[in-house]
Amino acid sequence: MKSFLERFEAFLHGKGLRLTNQRAEILRAIYRTHRHVTAEQLYEMIRDDARTKDLRISRATVYRTLGLLAEGGFVEALDLGRDQGVRYEHSLGHEHHDHMVCNDCGKIIEFHDPDLERVQDEVVARHGFVASSHQLNVYGSCAQCSRRERKKGASESDGAEA
Amino acid sequence: MKSFLERFEAFLHGKGLRLTNQRAEILRAIYRTHRHVTAEQLYEMIRDDARTKDLRISRATVYRTLGLLAEGGFVEALDLGRDQGVRYEHSLGHEHHDHMVCNDCGKIIEFHDPDLERVQDEVVARHGFVASSHQLNVYGSCAQCSRRERKKGASESDGAEA
DNA sequence: GTGGATGCAAAAAGTTTGCAGGCGT
DNA sequence: ACGCCTGCAAACTTTTTGCATCCAC
């Protein structure tokens, strides 16, 4: 099993492109984090990382490399709405999944359900549509936040009912 | 049954705001079209419309009004990805629906399936998540385009196989 | 050595905001 | 008359691009 880096290198060579230190560092950074990061966050991560203090990096290279990584299927771009901007996550070694976004604490929860996928495929196929990918975002309150909300709502309505 | 415009007026008054000609025209424009429009497209529609030739309009007002309309639930913002930018659709008088985006012709197809909604709710609830809304985008080839693709693929492999 | 890659800064694209004047109530 | 609204232009944010230099192969 080749490493992600080796696979990225193979992908680049297939296009007559080169694996540079910057590109390698960007790949490592996005595979090291478990967050859904923006281009800016990725840029800061690499710039501030002590291990890479001797590496010059620029936003332009981050953007250019994210384009290559997305094209090669190494990362996926997500738009989680709510003024979050475009975020990226590494995709190799991760099964497809969807996202729940908590409107209260901002947490992003990944989930996957085979039944859901199956029903989705069926519905879409019924329209003669040939799906190549999809993105489902669910917005609301996560388990912790909704528990907290309920508790707060209960105590408020105890004494202060209008 | 109050008209959408009357409801918008009521919504505005409830916030101590006024219904101006610009705001009314923006509401009408987005309720008249069946496309998923960007702020820029909406601006151009109003600016170029003969009926509103005597009305001054600016992009700033379009953006400001779209914010109000979204807040009041009169329009919904969508991010259909693929460099499409934020698009808006009117939401009153429309049941909730999801979108299929054709990567070949750019067509946007709306669809709705109660089973799909139900499975989605179940899966999400199983995680203790309380959903308030969701957005599902399916990317691929629409019926026409996928038919065309198949035909093209077949004739190509007829004579020009490498 | 050569052509691709990089950083920088300028440019572009999309959206927001400050302000002076205009207008609805 | 008051205070909300508007257009304009400037500011902001995010992403792309031109260019001289640099470096991976």
CATH topology title of the largest domain in chain A: Arc Repressor Mutant, subunit A
State the helical fraction of chain A.
40-55%
User: Overall mean pLDDT score of chain A?
Assistant: 89
Main CATH class of the largest domain in chain A: Mainly Alpha
Order of helices and strands of chain A: HHHHEEEEHEH
Whole-number tally of structural domains of chain A: 2
State which percent range the strand residues of chain A make up: 15-25%
Named CATH architecture of the largest domain in chain A: Orthogonal Bundle
Oligomer state equals: homodimer
How are the strands of the largest sheet of chain A arranged? Answer: 4-3-5
What's the tally of helices of chain A?
Answer: 6
Number of strands of chain A: 5
- CATH homologous superfamily (4th level) name of the largest domain in chain A: Winged helix-like DNA-binding domain superfamily/Winged helix DNA-binding domain
